[in-house]
Design brief:
The complex is a heterodimer of chains A (about 450) and B (about 350).
Chain A: H1 4-43, H2 46-79, H3 82-116, H4 118-152, E1 157-159, E2 165-167, H5 170-174, H6 177-207, H7 212-248, H8 250-257, E3 263-264, E4 268-275, E5 280-287, H9 290-296, E6 302-303, H10 318-348, H11 355-363, H12 366-383, E7 386-388, E8 392-393, H13 404-435
Antiparallel strand pairs in A: 1-2, 3-6, 4-5, 7-8
Chain B: H1 2-33, H2 37-47, H3 51-68, H4 70-79, H5 81-103, H6 107-137, H7 166-190, H8 193-224, H9 228-234, H10 240-258, H11 261-283, E1 286-288, E2 298-299, H12 300-303, H13 307-334, H14 341-346
Antiparallel strand pairs in B: 1-2
The chains are: A mainly alpha (about 450), B mainly alpha (about 350).
């Protein structure tokens, strides 16, 4: 790893992977908190407000970590990827600047009001601040995805002086078809993270006989929202995203699927390890013809394999790409199974007696984080060796004068700092969960009239 | 079009310094001015609902700089690689110390985060000042528009420069003093009783330091960089900026004498704006002068993005920033008034 490019790539990969733990949680929770506040406003029942207040605390910790780990992302475009920034800043700077101007001001102002102003604002304005927080965080997600979508599928640009890219159509950039699918798919992933987190806390309360009323409330809300998100994650959004990749990045699709040879009626690989030097898949387990059907809706359709492309065009880490993609899809499928079963049991009224389901929901907590991360690794490693697909190679985008040594120095700094942040995050969230949603001074939930959790 | 965006970016950076400046200043004073845990909670409570929004001004200014002047963003950020990464670490430590402190009580826990908060605020002020000093002094850009500066070389502002030399350190010290004064003015404005009395006393003493440093830095800048004066010779109307800074500084003293804490803070804001606009005015049309060869320096026209994007940007920027300013005003109005010790104890967090 003395090659500066590798260190810069790992620098970005590490800081963004750690960063994205938090936004996926806050974007998911923002929706759930808004739902809780809406139910509070509609029913006038204080239990929903107490539940919202509890989640707002966890939201607050996660949001703070998302903000402080997010600023380095914007900075790194300039610090570590200066040639990319100089060339593409006129285009992707638009969406990044809009994120700051439109969504961060919105989010931070209303988060302050939401966390500190419940008494001053009154119920209606407090509900409104939860809506604004939700809109702000989801808008922020959109503008970031639009930025990434331009790097995946550049639109609305023309060549400018000195190898730069000039924006020619603002709306093409903002309504990039790639971005629309990617956004829907990303946000559903975030909603599932929020839902599995809420469900895990609820299941934990129910299994340990703590705050059981809140436990039921959390599980109920999160399972209903989660099951919708899980199904939409697969179809139409996952499917739509996959078809875009097949059309615009066929080499990426071949690498994701571990398809070394072009085939009519290509199989869908469920398990197996790619052996890139020998161009084959070890221990494959596959569904015949399924890939052709999923990609082109015809069982016998021809799917391009890696053999159709020169190796210089191949993603440069096929094994990582292949495994991330398969982890994402595999976990997504398992989530559908868990949530559909949980929703069925909830509908039948047997979920809260099923220890097995509650344990499953509790232990599922880390997996949506893994699936979301794996999804982003698929997108970003799949784009390689390009930093802007088809236009600019990743190696051409790096800062030319920042040496491997300096990049190592700051990477080590981030590794150390983020380790401490990660430990403190888990510690603080665990404390809030132990503390529970009904702190002393507030009426206990079972004495609240009109509330029925069963 | 480039000049318009030069003014808009300057506006956003000035907004950032004025707003985040007072919470950085409050952070610097935190350990010294607030003696008990209750007082420290008041300090944190006075900035709790707003510091995060203040920091957004930096992110938004950074994003705007990125899209309007991509070449400047690329050259400046990669050239100032090491200090910027340290600024990031300081921003992270400062942000989490505010957030983490409130979630767990206990004297040891609070002591750790109070110290982290205060120290990171102090270093941030110095780093920001040093960064500004670097931009004004010029950097060793090559013909392709790249440079890389080590943290220091021989501490001289000529030849092979580093981030830190006597001039940039001096600017850092000025920034530290000015933001500390700004923080004291904020605390005097937002608190009452002993804490306010101490803040006012602190502000009065700091005023002399800031006034002396303002004179020193002005003299040093014009002596080291005679070109800075040319903007004022070409466009004498620009004297309005330094005049604003001086008048505002005198205003701070006057209002301190009159015990008008709101006006003290307003004057301190105006002082910071006056100083920053003076610097921006004297730099224009340069945005990053080169110490190697004057022709390699980045100017408004050589660093700006294409016109189409800048024109479109003007539309959404105007809409977005009007919204942003209205949220900012709304938030500040909602949390207007003095922070009482009772109110701060009432809240579960902060």
């Amino acid at each position: 790893m003395e090659d500066a490019l590798t260190v810069h790539r790992f620098h970005f990969a590490f800081t963004i992977t750690f960063h994205y733990i938090f936004p996926q949680l806050t974007m998911g929770l923002a929706l759930l908190i808004f739902i809780l506040k809406s139910l509070a406003l509609r029913t006038g029942n204080q239990v929903w407000n107490q539940a919202a207040r509890f989640w707002a605390k966890i939201f607050g910790i996660s949001f703070a970590l998302g903000v402080v780990t997010g600023i380095p992302m914007e900075f790194q475009f300039g610090t570590n990827w200066s040639q990319f920034s100089r060339a593409a800043g006129g285009v992707i700077g638009q969406t990044l600047a809009m994120e700051g101007v439109f969504s961060f001001f919105l989010e931070s102002s209303f988060l302050g009001l939401f966390l500190f102003g419940e008494k001053r604002l009154g119920p209606r304005a407090h509900w409104l601040s939860s809506l604004m927080m939700f809109l702000g965080s989801w808008l922020s997600g959109y503008l970031i995805v639009a930025t990434d979508a331009w790097m995946q599928h550049p639109v609305g640009w023309a060549p400018g002086p000195n190898g730069s890219f000039e924006l020619t159509s603002f709306w093409a950039l903002l309504l990039n078809p790639w971005g629309l699918w990617q956004y829907a798919h990303t946000m559903l992933g975030a909603v599932q993270t929020g839902c599995f987190t809420m469900a895990a806390v609820g299941a934990y309360y129910l299994l340990s006989n703590l705050h059981a009323d809140f436990g039921k409330l959390f599980v109920r809300v999160s399972v209903w929202v989660g099951v919708i998100a899980a199904v939409l994650q697969l179809f139409p959004t996952g499917d739509g995203q996959g078809k875009l990749i097949a059309r615009y990045q066929p080499v990426t699709l071949a690498a994701m699927e571990g398809l070394f040879e072009t085939q009519q009626g290509a199989p869908l690989v469920i398990l197996g390890q790619p052996d890139v030097p020998n161009r084959r898949l070890d221990n494959p387990m596959m569904i015949p013809r399924a890939l052709s059907f999923l990609t082109y809706n015809r069982w016998a359709a021809k799917v391009d394999g890696l053999d159709r492309f020169p190796p210089s065009e191949w993603p440069d880490n096929i094994a990582l790409l292949y495994f991330s993609y398969h982890m994402m899809v595999g976990l997504g499928t398992i989530f559908i199974a868990i949530l559909v079963l949980a929703a069925w049991k909830l509908f039948r009224g047997t979920l809260f007696n099923s220890k097995f389901m509650l344990w499953t929901l509790m232990l599922a907590l880390p997996f949506p984080f893994i699936a979301n991360t794996a999804g982003w690794i698929t997108a970003e490693v799949g784009r390689q060796p390009w930093i802007i697909f088809g236009l600019m190679r990743t190696r051409a985008g790096v800062s030319p004068l920042v040496s491997a040594g300096n990049a190592w120095f700051t990477l080590l700094g981030f590794l150390g700092l983020y380790s401490i942040l990660g430990i403190l995050f888990l510690f603080l969230v665990y404390r809030e969960i132990e503390h529970g949603p009904a702190p002393a001074g507030f009426p206990a939930s079972r004495t609240t009239p009109g509330f029925s959790a069963d | 079009m480039g000049s318009v965006w030069f003014c808009l970016v300057a506006f956003m950076l000035a907004g950032y310094v004025v707003l985040d400046g007072f919470d950085i200043g409050a952070g610097i004073l935190h350990l010294w001015i607030a003696r008990s845990n209750a007082e420290r909670r008041i300090v944190i409570r006075s900035i709790g609902p707003v510091w995060d929004g203040n920091e957004v001004w930096l992110i938004a200014a950074g994003g705007t700089l990125y899209f309007a002047f991509p070449a400047l963003y690329a050259a400046g950020f990669s050239g100032f690689y090491l200090p910027l990464m340290m600024v990031l670490w300081l921003l992270i430590l400062r942000g989490v110390s505010l957030e983490f402190r409130s979630h767990v009580g206990g004297p040891i826990w609070c002591a750790i985060w109070d110290a982290t908060f205060s120290l990171s605020s102090l270093l941030l002020a110095v780093f920001y000042g040093a960064a500004l000093g670097n931009v004004v002094r010029g950097v060793p850009l090559d013909a392709a528009g790249h440079f890389f500066e080590p943290l220091w070389t021989n501490f001289l502002p000529t030849g092979q420069t580093g981030i830190l030399d006597w001039y940039t350190i001096l600017v850092g010290v000025v920034a530290l003093a000015a933001l500390t004064l700004h923080g004291a003015a904020w605390l005097a404005f937002k608190t009452e009783g002993d804490l306010q009395a101490r803040s006012l006393r602190g502000a009065s003493r700091l005023w002399w330091l800031v006034a002396a440093l303002t004179v020193v830095i002005t003299a040093a800048s014009f002596r080291l960089l005679p070109d800075l004066a040319s903007s004022f010779r070409l466009r004498p109307w620009g004297f309005v900026f330094p005049v604003l800074a001086v008048a505002a500084l005198l205003g701070v003293k006057l209002f301190l004498r009159m015990n008008r804490d709101g006006l003290v803070f307003a004057a301190s804001c105006a002082y910071l704006v006056g100083m920053l606009t003076s610097v921006a005015f004297s730099l224009y049309p340069n945005v990053l002068p080169a110490s190697t060869n004057p022709y390699w320096g980045l100017t408004v026209s050589s660093a700006k993005a294409a016109d189409y994007g800048l024109r479109i940007g003007l539309i959404w920027w105007a809409i977005g920033m009007s919204l942003a300013v209205s949220y900012t005003v709304f938030t500040y109005r909602n949390f207007a008034g003095k922070i009482s010790s009772q109110e701060s104890a009432e809240h579960d967090s902060y």
